[in-house]
Amino acid sequence: MDADELLVLVAGGDQKAFEDLYGLVSGPVYGLVRRVVRDPAQSEEVAQEVLLELWRSAARFDPRRGSALSWVLTLAHRRAVDRVRSARAAGEREQREALRSGQPAFDHVAEEVEAGLEREWVRRCLERLTALQRQSVTLAYYDGYTYREVAERLSLPLGTVKTRMRDGLTQLRKCLGGVA
Amino acid sequence: MSFVARLLRREDLHSLAAPYALDALERAERRRFETHLSTCEVCAAEVRALTEDAVRLAWSTAAPPPAALRERVLSAVRTTPQESAGVPARARAPQLPPHVWGNQAPPRGRSVRRPLFVPFATATAAAALVVASLFAVQANEARDDLAAQRARASEIANVLGAPDARASTGEDAKGRRIGVVASASEGRAVVTLSGYGEPPGGRVRQLWLMRPGAQPRSLGLFDGDTPLIASGLDTSSTSLAVTVEPGGGSPQPTSQPIVQLALKSVGFGE
Ligand SMILES: [Zn+2]
């Protein structure tokens, strides 16, 4: 049974279906939260909130409108970003210090990633973007920065960042969709 | 506010679809844009598409959660009440991303993009090799028949995505490599070679299936760096071998293998 069917059963209070759903989505949910939040203990907390929220709000899912996995990961990402931003607001001064010391914006392609297949594919597609497209997309998605913060970090006008994000995602779609 | 100012404001809102899909709006702006989404079908459609793209970025980060998390979540579920579908949106948990953007349903028959590969596919150099070759396939699309390339690529993706797909790689002293990703349940394997260059004099590289007590069986000819899909493998298959053969290939190998790879590590020959 796929996540879409399971989520419909979960909405009806089926705990066994939830266990199966957990098996399918806990890895992607935890991995994504961990990528954004970084801190293992906090990541676990956020992942737990997200998974419980799936149980509570499963009735909101409408399989005619899109895939369950997209919905689940969108929710997980939203929660992870909210958490990392509150944590960041608390330590904002340090952040400004780091910026002033001229630390370059983090570029994920340079990071050594474990080469899973999907991972490898995404990495290669990210490599194909221009540096500004890639940084605009990854600083927002993987690091949880708002587009204003991204603009500040990359010293770009707001409009440029919005465009780079859009172009970056569209290019990714072409590259990732190449064999789907 | 003047008409022009209002128009500019709306113009400005239209440009927020990508930052929204990436969750890159501040809370207040996010809410403002969500209000806009319920009235602007253009942005709603764009957000739907861009969100699917963003989710592809999520898939590649999958990681096994701590074991203790499962028990905690499952026991919490036993005592946590669920929302019913009939509860009005405002009464629900705040800040939930809307599952549906806008009022119109997406076009019928819209295919939902899914990740190409299962998130926990074996991570090895062979995997990277296959992906590298797939990229070569993509780059050559302009030259070759697009439909055929896509069919082959999606066949490859199927093998790679099989739940029991496993990968293995072999490298010789000269740095030439053979990579295989195989699924025993599908009886298929994707094989790639790298570093071998073009065989001289119009000759070809041919892939063979080796089984104990049986003649080698041809699995096909390599075409440059393009991955070769081998099918009809059964559990008695013990290894793969590559030989250089005259143009068009041979019914049986006519030379010593240039490389051989045991299949045991990918679930065969047991
Ligand atoms: Zn709009």
Model description:
- The complex is a heterodimer of chains A (180) and B (270).
- In chain A, 73% of the residues lie in helices and 0% in strands.
- Chain A has 9 helices and no strands.
- In chain A, helix 7 crosses helix 8 (147-154) and helix 7 packs across helix 9 (158-176).
- The longest helix of chain A has 23 residues, at 15-37.
- The radius of gyration of chain A is 18 Å and the shape is globular.
- Chain A starts with a helix and ends with a helix.
- Chain B has 270 residues and is an alpha+beta fold.
- Chain B folds into 2 domains: 1-58 and 93-110, Orthogonal Bundle (Arc Repressor Mutant, subunit A); 118-266, Sandwich (Immunoglobulin-like), CATH 2.60.40.
- Chain B has helices at residues 3-14, 17-21, 27-37, 41-59, 67-79, 125-139, 146-161; strands spanning 166-171, 177-183, 188-194, 204-210, 217-221, 228-230, 239-245, 259-262.
- In chain B, strands 1-2-3-6 form a 4-stranded antiparallel β-sheet, with helices on one face. In chain B, strands 5-4-7-8 form a 4-stranded antiparallel β-sheet, with no helix packed on it.
- The radius of gyration of chain B is 26 Å and the shape is elongated.
- The N and C termini of chain B lie far apart (77 Å).
- Chains A and B meet through helix 2, helix 3, helix 4, helix 6 and helix 7 of A and helix 2, helix 4, helix 5, helix 6 and helix 7 of B.
- Bound molecules: zinc ion (ZN).
- Zinc ion (ZN) binds next to helix 1 and helix 4 of chain B.
